[in-house]
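Service request form, structural biology core

Requester: graduate student, group of Dr. S.
Request type: structure prediction, single chain
Budget code: on file
Notes: please return the result as structure tokens.

Sequence provided:
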Amino acid sequence: MIRLAARAGMIGPVLFGFVLTTLTILKYDFLLSLGWHPINDPTFDWPSGLALGPYGWIMTLTFILSGLMMTIFASGLRLSLPRSRLTLIATFALSLAGLALAGLAFTTDPTIRSTPATWHGRLHDLSFVLLGITLMPSIILLGFAFRHSPQWRSLSSYTWGTALLAVPTFSLKGSAFYIFLLAILIWCEVIAIRLRSMQELS
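Core staff response, request fulfilled:
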């Protein structure tokens, strides 16, 4: 299970980043038509708007796969860390973040529209809120959980540093949102690589 979790944790961020970048390039003109702009308004219907229009199913599938892999990754972390209430809460929150990420597969509603909000648009917005309120606390709590394990202790400060960078950039939106995404994807990759190396040594 830990080996599977490590692989999921390593593949998930790469898959998400690759699809996000590729679709943004392929659908550049379409995103502009939604009101998005890479510098002036980068979070306007992005990345959720990538699930709309041509190739939208690829982003929808990526939300699902990335979310499920994050949940599996969280399970592996739970098994690799010392058993405690802190570990349970931290990894449970990360699992919920994974499910919320998968929930983004409910297609968003374009911000500029003449029709009422749809049920799937509301579920998408709810999933985004749940992702924000579970992912940040899970990373902070994992930093504390890492402190209680000699094998993980060296990554506790890095984990808190990631949270310190991610929280304001998530809140500020704008171009800072790129920093948030990059920080989170790199953190997941680093933690997954450590998880894999621990499994290989055991």
